[in-house]
């Protein structure tokens, strides 16, 4: 399989790539990661079961979409497909370094520029993708409140019911979410979609990079809200972001709603205490606080 992947890399890049060494890269939540080292060039390869090829294709197309904004660095996807009952995604290899305050500020500015880049009049994307390994529905929708209520919170609630979670009634929640967002009419921004600290890094040359996206056109605040979950980003990041594209009033209230999506997804992926956390957030939202 590795030689076939090397042949595909050669076809796409035009170099004669031969594998000299292969190293396992840890840190991924979903896939197995490898460094594929040749004579002078290295690639990052993700592997999964053949059935996951759509997930890799969506990731590659998301990276391409982000690249097309020329705003923030993301790994360049090289090729993807199925070989020998495995799906694979090959991308540019990046050397990571320790982030400086300057780099975090720059990441904030560059993410703001990506959010300003435009490119769609509607919310959604050209295809569904995944958030973690959960399907993420990106049906084109005119109205942000409808999109977020139905395709983000509503969809995860349906999955949670199937999983046996005791969560409030689907219709009640979807309607309340719709009402909460009724006055929110953002311009559709290309968002990373899964921007927790594990998906943000800085190269050894000090350049900010964002990885492993769940791209779609949405309210830019979803990315900022998620940076505040699971550890948070340094103040320099928000300074840089607000310099270029200041956050609007009401963000603090919407933040809980936007992050509920990720907590519901964590409940669907991992179960456990995320169910009660989602319930607390839902109660807070349903009681209008
Ligand atoms: P998963 O899809 O399994 O969640 P990630 O995209 O999060 O995998 O990658 C797992 C780890 O591999 C990251 O934490 C990072 O350290 C490393 N990594 C990801 N992309 C690259 C890359 N392009 N070059 C080098 N290392 C990478």
From TrEMBL:
Cellular compartments per GO CC: cytoplasm
According to its UniProt entry, this protein's organism is Hydrococcus rivularis NIES-593
Q: Which UniProt keywords are given for this protein, alphabetically ordered? A: ATP-binding, Kinase, Nucleotide-binding, Transferase
Membership in a protein family: Belongs to the fructosamine kinase family.
PANTHER family, sorted: FRUCTOSAMINE 3 KINASE-RELATED PROTEIN (PTHR12149), PROTEIN-RIBULOSAMINE 3-KINASE (PTHR12149:SF8)
| Any GO MF annotation of the entry | kinase activity
Output the Gene3D superfamilies linked to this UniProt entry: 3.90.1200.10, Phosphorylase Kinase, domain 1
Fetch the InterPro entries from UniProt.
Answer: Fructo-/Ketosamine-3-kinase, Kinase-like_dom_sf
Q: Does the keyword Oxidoreductase apply?
A: no
State the name under which the record lists this protein.
Answer: Fructosamine kinase family protein
């Amino acid at each position: 399989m590795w030689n076939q992947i090397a042949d595909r890399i050669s076809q796409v890049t035009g170099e004669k790539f031969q594998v000299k060494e292969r190293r396992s890269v840890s840190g991924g939540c979903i896939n197995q990661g490898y460094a594929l080292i040749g004579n002078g060039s290295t690639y990052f390869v993700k592997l999964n079961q053949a059935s996951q090829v759509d997930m890799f294709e969506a990731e590659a197309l998301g990276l391409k979409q982000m690249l097309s904004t020329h705003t923030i660095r993301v790994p360049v996807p090289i090729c993807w497909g199925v070989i020998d009952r495995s799906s694979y995604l090959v991308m540019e290899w990046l050397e990571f370094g320790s982030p400086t305050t300057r780099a975090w500020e720059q990441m904030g500015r560059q993410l703001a520029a990506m959010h300003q880049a435009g490119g769609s009049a509607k919310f959604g994307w050209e295809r569904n993708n995944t958030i973690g390994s959960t399907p993420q529905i990106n049906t084109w929708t005119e109205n942000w409140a409808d999109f977020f209520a139905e395709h983000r919170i509503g969809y995860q609630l349906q999955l949670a019911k199937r999983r046996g979670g005791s969560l409030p009634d689907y219709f009640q929640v979807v309607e309340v979410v719709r009402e909460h967002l009724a006055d929110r009419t953002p311009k559709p921004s290309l968002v990373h979609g899964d921007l927790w600290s594990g998906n943000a890094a800085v190269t050894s040359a000090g350049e900010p990079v964002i990885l492993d996206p769940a791209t779609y056109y949405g309210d830019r605040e979803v990315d900022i809200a998620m940076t505040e979950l699971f550890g948070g980003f340094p103040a320099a990041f928000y300074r840089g972001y607000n310099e270029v594209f200041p956050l609007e009033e009401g963000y603090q209230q919407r933040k809980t709603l936007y992050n509920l999506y990720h907590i519901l997804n964590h409940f669907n992926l991992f179960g456990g205490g995320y169910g009660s956390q989602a319930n607390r957030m839902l109660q807070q939202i349903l009681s209008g606080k």
